[in-house]
Automatic annotation (TrEMBL):
Pfam families: RVT_1
Superkingdom assignment: Eukaryota
Compositionally biased tracts (Basic and acidic residues): 1-14
Name of the molecule in the record: Reverse transcriptase domain-containing protein
Length: 490
């Protein structure tokens, strides 16, 4: 009876997929599964065009500074999306909590958040935290497909495996050079095509399998502090190992090499977080510098460069509507300026400088120059903007609540728990400006308030509040209004 029930389940899933394809893909595409998987028809969805895109900030010329992207047809992309939707629950169960890349409700923000709390821990106590960061070379292009399929076979259902096997088989690639396609196709039998939504997830599965073996060769935490730290922080192929000592990268490299994963030695980083140290502040993790002041200055430079590129748009006056200009500014300039701003911990003077910088950009967007004058409040109203310090505060509390609602085992939550577990000698005097200190300062602005963030118990209380999104929104609104209120005369 069990065999019959399993066959019925598979048949029902196949019918559901046919309906799904029929709903989403008109015409010929609706026959894709029936033709390919049941009648063995040939439908050309495994061909693509290879183009090379220069990596941002890298000098032009060397092939290593190019990122290969495969342009795939729409039918394949649609099938990849449907397949990803079906296998997502199995994949989520397989991946470790340390992986943040290409996962629902995870992003670079919780990776940056983790590093900021680890830095805060090192500043609060007399401890040094070591981070060994590795990065893969051409990671997507080195995957052994047979090993990948063997891993996938243990995770997904049979019909889902057949679809993935089909998507990875007989892939044919043409190259596009200077806008023209060279009709010299070649068969690709390694890696996953970078061009659809399924490829990065398949890579994460492949890397996770390799990291499972890496974890067996790394020394286990013995120190009380080390046991509380998140031992691993990953975003796609960027992996950081955290502890009180650096890991043996040669051992890690040899283990990953078994899976055809090549560690980029030039990008391997050894970072020491400490109260006295300053070098770590310029260490970049997922596009964010660990030092807040350093990261803000870098964001200013990058956003100004983007603003200058659109100079012709800003100076055209009435030819382009103000609403259109502001849309362009928010999409192409402000988004660069405030990237991961929810992880920043800034002093009052640093916030004021950033607000002034933001207003200067808004004046350029509206082409307001001397001798024309405009008050700050009028400028904000005209642009439908708020001081950037308020925007940062809102993002900080939105991200804080989002992380508190995630699994307790993700690195961001483990780093917060570790911060409140005392392991070293605390430094005397006024605490340095760090993310937990700023969050507690935000709470202190509230009147008739019993909330604070100075102990693990306080953190758990806020975690309980965060589970109710409405309550958390109300708390965040109260904090924002308190920050916007003029200073008291008392």
């Amino acid at each position: 009876m069990e065999g019959k029930e399993n066959k019925d389940c598979v048949k029902q899933e196949q019918e559901e997929m046919n309906e799904e394809l029929s709903d989403r893909l008109p015409g010929r595409s609706a026959r894709l599964k029936e033709g390919v998987f049941e009648e063995h028809e040939t439908i050309n969805i495994n061909s693509g065009e290879l183009i090379a895109i220069p990596k941002p900030g890298k000098p032009k010329g060397p092939p290593k500074n190019l990122r290969p992207i495969t342009l795939l047809n729409t039918i394949r992309k649609a099938l990849s999306i449907i397949t990803l939707h079906r296998i997502r629950p199995h994949i989520e169960e397989y991946l470790s909590h340390s992986q943040s890349g290409f996962r629902p409700e995870r992003s670079t923000s919780d990776v940056a958040w983790t590093h900021k709390w680890l830095a805060a821990k090192a500043k609060k106590e007399d401890v040094e935290i070591k981070i060994t960061g590795i990065d893969m070379s051409a990671a997507f292009d080195t995957i052994d497909r047979q090993i990948l399929l063997d891993i996938i076979e243990r995770i997904v259902e049979e019909d889902e495996l057949r679809i993935i096997r089909f998507l990875l088989s007989d892939t044919v690639i043409n190259t596009r050079i200077n806008g023209a396609t060279k009709e010299r196709p070649f068969v690709s039998n390694i890696g996953t095509p970078q061009g659809d939504s399924l490829s990065p997830v398949l890579f994460s599965v492949y890397l996770e399998n390799a990291l499972k073996e890496v974890r067996t060769i790394l020394p286990r935490p013995t120190n009380k502090l080390e046991k509380t730290l998140p031992t691993e922080i990953a975003y796609a192929d960027d992996v950081d190992f955290v502890g009180l000592n650096f890991v043996d990268t040669e051992e890690v490299q040899n283990t990953l090499h078994k899976y055809n994963l090549l560690v980029n030695i030039d990008k391997t980083e050894f970072t020491t977080l400490s109260r006295a140290g300053t070098e770590y502040k310029n260490t970049k993790k997922v596009g964010t510098l660990i030092g807040d002041e350093e990261d803000v200055e870098r964001r200013k430079r990058l956003s100004n460069a983007a603003l200058t590129k659109l100079l012709n748009v800003w100076i055209k006056g009435d030819k382009i509507k103000r609403k259109t200009k502001l849309k362009l500014y928010r999409s192409l300039v402000k988004s660069i300026l405030v990237y991961n701003c929810g992880t920043w911990a800034l002093t009052k003077s640093e916030e004021e400088k950033l607000n002034a910088f933001h207003r200067k950009q808004l004046r350029k967007v509206l082409n307001i120059k001397y001798p024309v004058k405009i008050t700050n409040s009028s400028l904000y109203n005209k642009c439908e903007e708020h001081p950037l310090s308020i925007y940062i505060l809102e993002n900080r509390w939105r991200l804080f609540g989002h992380i508190l609602r995630r699994n307790i085992e993700i690195p961001a939550n483990k780093s917060m728990n570790s911060y409140f577990a005392t392991h070293g000698k605390k430094f005397r005097g006024r605490p340095l400006t760090t993310l937990p200190v700023v969050l507690n300062k935000d709470l202190s602005r509230l009147q008739e308030n019993t909330l604070q963030l100075t102990t693990r118990e306080d953190l758990e209380h806020l975690r309980c509040i965060a589970q109710n999104r409405q309550q958390w929104r109300e708390l965040s609104t109260r904090i924002r209004k308190a920050a916007e209120a003029p200073p008291s005369d008392d």
